[in-house]
Each structure stands twice: as C-alpha cells, then as structure tokens.
Amino acid sequence: MKNLNDTLNKVIKILTSNNNLDFDNCLVKMTSSHIVTPIGDIASVLEDQKSKLKDELVDFKLFKDLVMILNTNNSIVRLNHIGFGYRVKSQQFEKQRLINLAIKTNQFLYEEESNDFALWLFLGDTTNWEKPLIEFVPVEQDHLEIDYFLPHIQIDIDTTLNANEIESITEEVFNTSIKPYRVAVINGITYIVRNRLGVIDGVNIFIDLATNSRNVKFHRQNYLKKIT
Fold first, then answer.
1. Which pLDDT belongs to residue 94?
2. pLDDT digits over 82-134, tens only?
3. For 33-87, what is each residue's pLDDT tens digit?
4. Which residues face 36 on adjacent strands?
5. Which of 3, 197, 202, 211 is the most exposed place for a label (fewest CB within 10 A)?
6. This prediction's pTM
C-alpha cells in the first residue's frame, strides 16, 4: 500500500496549504505504510479489496490549482471527516466489531441513519462539533458499481459554496479529467459534490466538497446517534 500512502500524503500536503484544514488534530495519521486510527490500521481492511478500475490518477498540478482557487476565494471552512468505504460480509458484524474497538479508546462511535445500502458510522467526539471525525462506510450488498467504487477513501471538506459553484470551479480546472457528481441529495438539496482523484493500489480517492447547505453543528447534534 506504499503507493496509496505516498499519494494520500501528497494530497494532504496540497490541502494543508489552507490553514482551515486541520490535519494535525485529525484522528487519521498517514505513515509510509499504515493508515493509523484510534481503532487500528485501516490499511489492512483496504488492502484485502481492490477496485476493478485501473490505477490512474489525475494530474496533481490541476488538483493544486483547484485548492489554490478555493483558497483565494476563501471557500474552505474546515476538514469535516476522512471516510473509508469498503465491502463486508455482514454489516452488523462489522458494526459490532467497530463498537468493540471504539469502547477501548477515548473516542465515541456514532451512527447516522443511512439513505442508501451502506452503514454510516462515525468515530470521534462531537462535544467540539468543529473537530474532524472518521467515517466508516461498510457495504454488504452486491452491486455492479461496488466492484469499481469500493474500496475508497474520502476526504470531506466543508465549503461556503453551493453545488453549482463547486461543479463550475471543478470543471473549469479539470475540464474532462474529473466529472463532479452529487452524492448526497436529500429532498432536492445537494449537500456533497464528489470529485474522484483516481485509483491507486486498487483504492479510490475522493475529495468530497460539501455545500453551504450543510449545517455541521446541527447535523452533529441532531443526526449522529452515539452508540458507545
């Protein structure tokens, strides 16, 4: 997984050009060969699975240009979470496994009601609602697309922009290299626009840019149910 970790560290280095993105206090730490979280190394989960998409990444110069535009526009608010999507044989078994690991830490596990076939589980402490969390997105259901878009790592960033503005900026920078798509649309309101940086070591890397429709404080206080 060395190529994956090197790529993630490169992504984070570009993102940290923005002072609002606090990776130092993030619960996920990247080393040369591990993805360390309070409940263990998530790399071991990801390396057992490979996307059917070939390893290929966008031009990182363009990614740097995107971040520079977001910085110039003061569009970045904070790092919301880093998420991991992966296939499991049993979602309930995986949920219990994460509960058992979380109770051994000083962090809490939360669950948000899902509107798709994945579980939405978050690790962290929402007492300070602005601190970044970790999301675990275990998927049990067989579906053709899953073979391509799992496993994945998503870096979720809160912005001041609406969905149209995010799409416009992304398309302007990447042209056809990235096709932004709306992954969280509830009652006609778009909350997240996803940008796929590509695949490395069989793992998809997504940059999720949240719209200004997402009220983080309200969401964490009202939608995340503590389960540990």
1. 97
2. 999 999 999 999 999 999 999 999 999 999 999 888 999 999 999 999 999 99
3. 899 999 999 998 898 889 999 999 999 999 999 999 999 999 999 999 999 999 9
4. 29, 41
5. 3
6. 0.96
The domain ranges of the chain are 2-226
What's the rounded Cα separation, in Å, for the pair 119 and 85? 10
User: Is it the case that residue 14 has pLDDT exceeding 90?
Assistant: yes
Whether the CB-CB separation of 23 and 75 falls below 8 Å is answered with no
Cα–Cα distance, 4 to 30 (Å, whole number): 10
Query: How many whole angstroms separate alpha carbon 11 and alpha carbon 207?
Result: 10
Task: State how beta strands 40-41 and 225-226 pair.
Answer: unpaired
Q: Which segments of 23-174 are extended strands (E)? A: 29-30, 35-37, 40-41, 56-57, 76-87, 108-112, 120-124, 133-139, 152-159
Q: Do 57 and 198 contact (CB within 8 A), yes or no?
A: yes
Architecture of domain 2-226: Roll (3.10)
Classify residue 124 as left (phi > 0), alpha (psi -120 to 50) or beta.
left
CA distance 228 to 126: 13
